[in-house]
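Problem: given the chain below (85 residues), write out its structure.
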Amino acid sequence: MIKIKRPNGKIVEAEDIDFKPIKEDWNVYELEDGRILKIKVVVARVLRTEEKDTFTGEPIYIVRSQNVLTVVPPKKIKEESEKHE
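Solution.
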């Protein structure tokens, strides 16, 4: 068990929980300039607190994650860039 400070400032007891990714898909968006924005959330750490959700009684988890982001230029820009190389 470790002590961790929640975003509301409260310090709670928590323990690391092992996990394995089952599926990590990209969210894909087309921007108005034709570029494609791809983003996904990658979980780095999961902690289960001793606190319980007041409605469900389930444990409250703290998830540490990182956003992975890439931008794909439209074909027109990509082709022009390759011409100048």
